[in-house]
């Protein structure tokens, strides 16, 4: 009996210890910005980094949007360029200008379980996905004269985490000069549609110096091999700098502007 009592007490303590350990993992909820890029971008890479892209939301929500939009890219068989972008938010919580907050109890319940697990341990979101909140989206560009990129279509997550196809008209509905993705949900998914100029409560545009190739250490630190699926235009292992499949001699299709051999995008557009 004493052994059984000890085990019954130890298991909850062990589970709590695991949650607290996950909560205390090193590093910020936003990736650390490092000045400059150690590798000179190719001509296509430079064009991607000059191409302005904006991120916003029609609802106020918790979480600071990061200063850098990271990307990976892949060139398709017909010459189109698929660029997967990663937007980093410091946290994902239900508090903001939304119905969950207005009715109080639903937001509190989500916060207690999903975000904080009774306010002193990491919630479901942190335990399953890792620190912060990373939202991925993809834009497919055609390449014109002089290497100019023109947005054709895109993809992002909807409020139910389902894949949302974004037409060119969706990408340019807020700003006809700059592709813009935005959220309609407290949880930051960027597959919103139907908004026009003036409908966003916040709106941040990225361009030269703020759009950078995704470093493997950031991908590993934030476990991007299992998050932000719409942005994945290369194999998950390649995000982490581990081309294990190529070492086994498995065939790959396509290529990228960063010298990696890659598969076709996970989600066909």
Could you explain the architecture of this structure?
The protein is of the alpha+beta class. Helix content is 26%, strand content 22%. It is built from nine helices and nine strands. The chain has helices at 2-23, 43-50, 99-102, 105-115, 124-129, 168-171, 216-221, 236-239, 244-247, and strands at 53-57, 69-75, 81-89, 133-143, 149-157, 163-167, 180-183, 202-206, 211-213. A six-stranded mixed β-sheet has the order 6-5-4-3-2-9. Strands 7-1-8 form a three-stranded mixed β-sheet, with no helix packed on it. The protein is globular. The termini are far apart. The model is unreliable at 13-27 and 243-269 (pLDDT under 50).
Keywords for this entry:
9 strands; alpha+beta
SSE blueprint:
Layout (H helix, E strand, L loop, with lengths): L1 H22 L19 H8 L2 E5 L11 E7 L5 E9 L9 H4 L2 H11 L8 H6 L3 E11 L5 E9 L5 E5 H4 L8 E4 L18 E5 L4 E3 L2 H6 L14 H4 L4 H4 L22
Parallel strand pairs: 1-7, 2-9
Antiparallel strand pairs: 1-8, 2-3, 3-4, 4-5, 5-6
């Amino acid at each position: 009996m004493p052994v059984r009592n000890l085990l019954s007490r130890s298991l909850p303590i062990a589970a709590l210890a695991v949650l607290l350990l996950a909560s205390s993992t090193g590093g910020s909820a936003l990736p650390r910005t490092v000045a400059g890029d150690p590798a000179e971008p190719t001509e296509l890479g430079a064009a991607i980094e000059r191409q302005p892209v904006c991120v916003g939301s029609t609802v106020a929500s918790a979480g600071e949007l990061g200063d850098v939009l990271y990307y990976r890219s892949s060139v398709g068989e017909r010459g189109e360029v698929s660029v997967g972008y990663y937007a980093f938010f410091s946290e994902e919580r239900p508090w903001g200008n939304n119905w969950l907050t207005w009715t109080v109890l639903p937001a509190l319940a989500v916060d207690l379980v999903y975000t904080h697990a009774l306010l002193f341990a990491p919630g479901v979101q942190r335990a399953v996905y890792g620190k912060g909140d990373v939202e991925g989206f993809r834009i497919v560009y055609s390449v014109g004269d002089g290497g100019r990129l023109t947005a054709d279509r895109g993809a992002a997550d909807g409020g139910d985490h389902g894949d949302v196809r974004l037409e060119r008209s969706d990408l340019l509905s807020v700003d006809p000069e700059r592709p813009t993705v935005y959220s309609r949900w407290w949880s930051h998914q960027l597959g919103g549609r139907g908004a026009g100029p003036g409908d966003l409560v916040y709106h941040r545009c990225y361009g030269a110096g703020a759009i950078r190739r995704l470093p493997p250490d950031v991908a590993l630190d934030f476990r991007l091999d299992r998050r932000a699926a719409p942005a994945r235009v290369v194999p998950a292992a390649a995000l982490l700098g581990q081309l294990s499949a190529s070492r086994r001699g498995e065939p790959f299709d396509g290529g990228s502007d960063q010298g990696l051999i890659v598969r076709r995008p996970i989600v066909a557009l």
